Amino acid sequence: MMASFEKLKNYLAQCQQGIEEDAQKGILRFSSSQIEEGGRILFESIQRGGFATFIVPGKAGWDPESQYYEAIRKQAHKGKNITRLFLLPHRHYLRESRLRRHWELDRAAGIKVKFAITSGLLPLNGVSMLPESLDFGIWDDEIVCWVYKQTESSQNSFGNWVATNKQEHIDLAQRIRDALLDQDISDTLTSSMEGFALEEPLTQSAPAMAALSDFLCKGDHLNREDCSWYHRAWQYLRLLDLVSTPTWHSEFYLHAFSGHARKDQKSKVLISGTADYSMLAYVLHVFNRIKIKTEVSVLDLCDTPLMISRWYAAKRKADICTVKEDILKYSPATKFDFVVADAFLTRFSRKEQRKVLQKWAELLKGTGRIITTVRLDPLVESNKSVRPSNKEIEDFVLRAERLAELWREFVLLDPSQIGSIAREYAEKIESYAVRNRQELEKMFEEAGLVFEAYEETLVKGEMITTVYAEIVAKKKKK
To answer: What is the pTM of this model?
Structure first.
């Protein structure tokens, strides 16, 4: 039987002249108009099966029932072993109806469907994960097809296609495939979509929050005079998963709340400082799932995250209380079952960190829990703020622009605009990391708190790979 590469070469030779030189090198180049027919020819020649990525291109970007996708489903129906890995920048894109239609059709055909969140440009298993290297398929382990994005003005959902049977290209594609499959999150999902219920409408709220910041931001712990640079950028950077949010510690927060909530009474929860509604989304999701009533207060110095939290709560038909106040001056009439904050302590100097912990202990019921994350850095100088280096800033901006191009239809801003707000964020952000567990535990103990649970986890970080402590703490017994 004629090999897949030879069949593709014969088809291409009928369409255009001068392909022999490339073909002798094991390379065939297809224009976007030739991909559907080329794909049909390739897929019909598959003997065993293959693997393909699918970079979700946006709401208007593709037809799940096109000839190209139906051709591979036809082979899966015939029993060929085929896996498709959907690549997304954030879990909430799983809620898109077009994407769901696509993976349901794939599954019905017998294709193994997997999902991975690959917004970062960090190397995985030593392999570069630049977006332009991620759109590809490997067929019968004998041929690789890479898709390169079309120009911005093109209306075609495909880019240009390069097919190759060179072993070095096959080896590279296999390494990237294995690295991506290590990021598969399929085991955490359910066919009923229950696992997606937590996710957040960032594509709706990012423009609104950016607009709100222009007239609501008057200052917070990051900048006492003006925090608009922070809140304007925040949800756009979240869309690309470039900034630290509860999503990086999803399982920790879900288990911490559900494991400590008392089923016989309403839980009072204080969210101590927030950039947007993300932590609120986790709180509402968990307590709704375990069917325990909750009373949530969201505290921050700035009106922007408070207003976007009220918007989210209204969307969820939930009642919350928002408080514009400095945590150190907050004196409510009642105490809380949970005080929760994501990466909040490191916004303060060491002296202020101790005061915040003392305030949290003061606000906590005797049986209450503090649930939080703290960035660790063993190389940081005590009580000195840390800012990104010039190289880290440039790398951050480059990642933001590349991702914004890749996910253009979701992000809603031009890559240059994303690059601009990313640069302002990176140039102004600062933090006070804690060096290690011993230093952190000492501060908690000085505030009358002890660790009940403590884990360190490695996350990709904003500028560089970073270690975070995930902490559940309670009051010391007297």
So the answer is: 0.73
